[in-house]
Design goal:
Layout: E1 2-9, H1 16-27, E2 31-38, H2 47-54, E3 56-58, H3 64-77, H4 79-92, H5 97-116, E4 120-126, H6 130-142, E5 146-150, H7 154-157, H8 164-170, E6 173-176, H9 179-187, E7 197-199, H10 206-209, E8 221-225, H11 234-247, E9 252-256, H12 262-271, E10 278-282, H13 286-294, E11 298-301, H14 310-317, E12 322-325, E13 339-342, H15 347-359, H16 362-379, H17 382-393
Parallel strand pairs: 1-2, 1-4, 2-3, 4-5, 5-6, 6-7, 8-9, 8-11, 9-10, 11-12, 12-13
Helix pairs in contact: 1-17, 3-4, 3-5, 4-5, 4-6, 5-6, 11-12, 11-15, 14-16
């Protein structure tokens, strides 16, 4: 059986977990076709992502005329199904004119996908936002079963506006990446549909899971790997780093990532006078990320909102303890045996945990790293988790 994957933008730096899932399915013998609504970036730093870009078809790259032509063709050939999909699209707009226009655009995209999915038996979307909306409309136009994976926090911020209940009701099944995520889907779905809600955890790349043991870092190095965006709590991290300087703690913090808050974060670093202690690298390849994490005593991530960050899994797989906020699905992976859990939004507890990581005995860091790695290998093996998804689809 051939299945298709649909993502809003794929591949991208922050969606490497989707690549791992697809490749793991293919390693199990499943044929997977890749579709992205928006074309991928042209400056992908990872060679594997660049290879994936060549194998992925972008819907919006087809051009307006071709998309509208597909919509007209589907409307003529399948008038009953088209009208039903049109009603659902308008309903997902919830009476807001701009949102209705957006949903009608998703219907046009779904119509083009209908013409491109010849031979595909199941459509799986990642994220409960527009990819799941388009997949739902493809299902209404064709009867093809679909499923979708919800990551959070975006879906949990606006479940009603995204019509998660309707998407779950029409889907063959819906996937959460943590038990916390499944509980949020349960909040917004009919209890009669709860049997369709699965937990399939994200897998870790072999460059992290297969890394050789390294001696714990004895230097005063910490790192944070994150998109430079509001949900990651990075201004708070800079405040905590400034507090460490005030306390006389020796450290160097490396921020790996980029995003819309980069300028603001750079200004905060200058304002606190810690330019010599904090470095921003921008996006790096998987190998570059691995090297930074392996050279750190701990990976710090003070997020305000999450699903379950893959970078936490990557750090623990490399035997590097983590300093993370006790939110969403994170406590399902991290506890005091492999890291430090701190309250979200609190500067002093974050600074205290960073100080503890810097002061920890190397033997203690090694013990924590081994616990974390064993936990990740048990829960986040890409091949076994992809097989779980394949079994739900019915291809394995």
């Amino acid at each position: 059986m051939t299945i298709a994957y649909l993502v809003n933008q794929y591949p991208t730096v922050s969606h490497s977990f989707i690549r791992r899932e697809i490749l793991a399915l293919e390693a199990s013998g499943v044929s997977v076709r890749r579709f992205t609504l928006r074309p991928p970036p042209t400056d992908l730093p990872d060679p594997q992502d660049r290879q994936e870009a060549e194998r992925t078809t972008a819907v919006l790259a087809q051009g307006g005329m071709r998309l509208l032509g597909a919509a007209a063709s589907v409307a003529v050939r399948r008038p009953g199904r088209f009208l039903r999909a049109l009603r659902v699209a308008v309903g997902m707009g919830q009476g807001a004119p701009l949102t209705i226009i957006r949903q009608l655009a998703y219907l046009v995209e779904a119509c083009w996908l209908v013409t491109a999915l010849d031979g595909v038996r199941h459509l799986h979307a990642h994220f409960g936002t527009n990819p799941a909306a388009v997949a739902r409309l493809v299902h209404l136009l064709t009867g093809m079963p679909y499923s979708f994976t919800v990551h959070g926090p975006e879906e949990f911020d606006a479940p009603g506006a995204l019509d998660l209940p309707g998407k779950i009701a029409d889907a063959r099944f819906a996937v959460a990446i943590s038990s916390f995520g499944r509980s949020q889907l349960m909040r917004w779905s009919d209890p009669k549909a709860w049997h369709k809600l699965l937990v399939v955890r994200c897998g870790v790349d072999g460059i992290f899971a297969g890394a050789e043991p390294a001696a714990p870092c004895e230097g005063p190095n910490l790192c944070c790997v994150a998109r430079l965006s509001g949900q990651k709590g990075l201004p708070l991290l800079i405040e905590a780093a400034a507090l460490l300087k005030q306390r006389g703690v020796d450290y160097h913090l490396t921020l790996v990532g980029d995003g819309e808050m980069r300028s603001e974060i750079e200004q905060a670093i200058i304002r606190h006078g810690i330019q010599d202690r904090v470095t921003i690298t921008g996006y790096l390849s998987a190998e570059g990320v691995r090297n930074i994490i392996s050279g750190s005593r701990a990976m710090v991530l003070p997020s305000f909102a999450e699903g379950l960050p893959v970078v936490i899994m990557e750090a623990l797989a490399l035997r590097t303890p983590v300093v993370v906020t006790a939110i969403a699905g994170t406590p399902e992976l991290v506890d005091a045996s492999c890291g430090w859990l701190v309250p979200a939004g609190a500067i002093e507890p974050l600074a205290d945990a960073m100080t503890a990581a810097l002061a920890a005995d190397p033997n203690r860091l090694r013990e924590m790293g081994e616990v974390g790695r064993a936990r990740v290998l048990a829960q986040h093996d890409a091949l076994s988790n992809a097989r779980q998804l394949g079994e739900a689809v019915g291809v394995l």
